[in-house]
Design goal:
mainly alpha; 14 helices; 72% helix
């Protein structure tokens, strides 16, 4: 049992790291809040003084605000649905004994380590190019006209690109959870005559609930700030402008750091609302 002196020594040794971590998080947040209440024009005179909630009102009353929020939520929901559904299937497949299993697992996980800008460029130029892309050649092979993916189906294309990047992460987490499943339960269910679907829905899927919860929470946090894929592929056109991209555009167009900071505060609020919603819906699985 730890003594009072050992606990004090532990707190003393941890203090520098805790202070550094708090400073790393709180200083940018404090500066964002400070600038959101001011008119700061770095190329036109610098700090113009206190403006109160004017930046917040301007940002939220913009005709682009709510469409950007809805686009953000649609992309997040689409990516989560694809990565979790395919992640479960891939995890079950990779858990089966096969030749070259280790190599296959590495290949499945590899896309997660590709830079977002690089993967977006690959999808844009190699797969989705309406003239020379692989999809265009495939369409022509079947006698159909090529699809201009990034203009006619821009949002689904972004969802596809981002899902390809995050599918390895979901697969890795879910595969780890499946490998911890007691095989005796599945064998007993099989001996009792349970079908493969019944074993999946009544044994495997409940066992994966905690892992699915972790995937939902972690991916949502990062997906709410999606930017690079949109910047490289569509530039925010064709209905793909998310909240983070709208903040970038507002700062770039108006050169107003205060307006962009107000947008950043709205993004933080949205992220917390979504996180609280997810924790209330699925977070209870972490306690079971």
């Amino acid at each position: 049992m730890a003594t009072k002196a050992s606990r004090s020594a532990a707190r003393l040794m941890m203090a520098p790291a805790v202070i550094l971590l708090l400073g790393w998080m709180l200083v940018p947040l404090t500066m964002t809040l400070w600038f959101s209440f001011r008119t700061y024009l770095p190329l036109r005179g610098g700090d113009q003084g206190w403006t109160g909630f004017d930046n917040y009102v301007r940002f939220v009353t913009s005709s682009s605000f709510w469409p950007a929020v809805s686009t953000t939520l649609i992309i997040v929901a689409g990516v989560l649905a694809i990565t979790i559904a395919l992640g479960v299937l891939l995890a079950i497949l990779l858990d089966q004994p096969m030749w070259g299993q280790g190599v296959v697992r590495i290949l499945v996980i590899a896309p997660f380590f590709v830079m977002p800008t690089v993967s977006a460029l690959v999808w844009k130029n190699i797969f989705m190019d309406p003239t020379n892309g692989l999809f265009a050649h495939l369409w022509r092979f079947f006698g159909a006209d090529p699809v201009s993916w990034l203009s006619n189906a821009a949002t689904p294309s972004i969802i596809l690109i981002v899902s390809w990047q995050w599918l390895p992460f979901a697969t890795l987490i879910l595969l780890t959870a499946i490998q911890s499943l007691d095989s005796e339960q599945l064998e007993a269910a099989e001996m009792d005559g349970a079908s493969p679907l019944a074993r999946f829905f009544y044994i495997t899927l409940p066992h994966l609930s905690r892992a699915i919860t972790i995937v939902l929470l972690i991916q949502t946090i990062f997906l709410l700030a999606i930017f690079a894929e949109i910047f490289v592929t569509t530039g925010g056109a064709f209905g793909t402008r998310t909240l983070s991209y709208l903040i970038f555009q507002r700062v770039l167009e108006s050169q107003n750091i205060g307006l962009g900071s107000a947008g950043g505060v709205y993004a933080i609020i949205l992220a917390n609302i979504v996180a609280i919603f997810l924790m209330r819906i699925v977070g209870k699985n972490l306690d079971t």
